Amino acid sequence: MLDEFGAVIAQGGAGVVIASMAGTMAAGQLPPEGEGALALTPADQLRVQAASLTWGKRGARVNSISPGVISTPMGQAELSGESGAMMQGMIDVSVTGRIGTPSDIAEAAAFLLGPSASFITGTDLLVDGGVIAAVRSGAMQLPTA
């Protein structure tokens, strides 16, 4: 998808891919070669950083958004399922102390697609209410496998 859009995106265009907060949980815990591989995996394997290089040749930008726990049908199903207690714990220790809304994600996308973000490309915007900050600071411990 990134390659297909990258081949036709107009000069000055922008794109946003929706990822997941879960993908950031291992960030900083990989050895340097793992971090490098993660950053440079080919775009056909859905890596926004790699895609931003080809999009940039066309004068366009591409970024991703990694939502946290969001009040969608899927988010509600996860909250009431097996991992519900852990997800509620994430909400409880987050800085905002609330579940995210679809509007939170839409506003982040509008920012990344708009002129205010014209110098931002190849990055991931974590929209999680501070959950990852709580995990990285030690305020929340994730269960180990």
Description:
The chain has 145 residues and is of the alpha/beta class. It has a single domain (2-137), classed as NAD(P)-binding Rossmann-like Domain (Rossmann fold). It is built from seven helices and three strands, in the order αβααβαααβα. The protein has a three-stranded parallel beta sheet with strand order 1-2-3. α1 runs parallel beside α3 (48-57). The chain is globular.
Helix/strand layout:
Blueprint: H1 2-8, E1 14-18, H2 32-40, H3 48-57, E2 61-67, H4 73-79, H5 84-93, H6 102-113, E3 124-127, H7 131-137
Parallel strand pairs: 1-2, 2-3
Helix pairs in contact: 1-3
What's the short story on this structure?
The protein has 145 residues and is α/β, with parallel strands linked by helices.
Strand segment count: 3
State which percent range the strand residues make up: 5-15%
- Helical coverage, percent range: 40-55%
Strand order in the largest sheet: 1-2-3
- The appropriate CATH architecture is 3-Layer(aba) Sandwich
Going by CATH, the homologous superfamily would be: NAD(P)-binding Rossmann-like Domain
Number of contiguous helices: 7
> How many whole angstroms does the radius of gyration measure?
16 Å
- Overall pLDDT, averaged? 86
Task: Tell me the number of structural domains.
Answer: 1
Tell me the distance between the termini: 32 Å
Main beta sheet, described?
3 strands, parallel
Structural class: alpha/beta
Reading the helices and strands in chain order gives HEHHEHHHEH
